[in-house]
Amino acid sequence: MEEISRLLLAPLRFVVWVVWELFFREVLGWFWGKCYRNFPKTTIFVCVLLVVLAGYGIVTLLNKA
Fold first, then answer.
1. What is the pLDDT of residues 20-35, one digit of tens each?
2. What letters, b where the CB count within 10 A reaches 16 and e where it falls short, cover 19-46?
């Protein structure tokens, strides 16, 4: 049973990695470049908040599986 759950988690971890690489790095990079010049304190707060929420969501998903 443990081996089956490991096999099922492998694709999920891959998807999480792809989403992290493509979405978060690209979108946050664009957001940082556009907004940091105008709103430095707000940008830092929003980026930290997004990273914390994303990490919490990923940990919650992996713990449920």
1. 777 777 777 777 777 6
2. eeeeeeeeebeeeeeeeeeeeeeebeee
Strand residue runs (E) in 1-65: none
Tokens, residue 30: 């664009």
pLDDT at residue 4, as a whole number: 66
Average pLDDT over residues 25-48: 73
Q: Which domain holds residue 46?
A: 2-64
Are 11 and 19 a contacting pair, CB within 8 Å? no
Place of tokens 């089956």: 4
What's the total number of domains in the chain? Answer: 1
By the 8 A CB rule, do 50 and 28 touch? Answer: yes
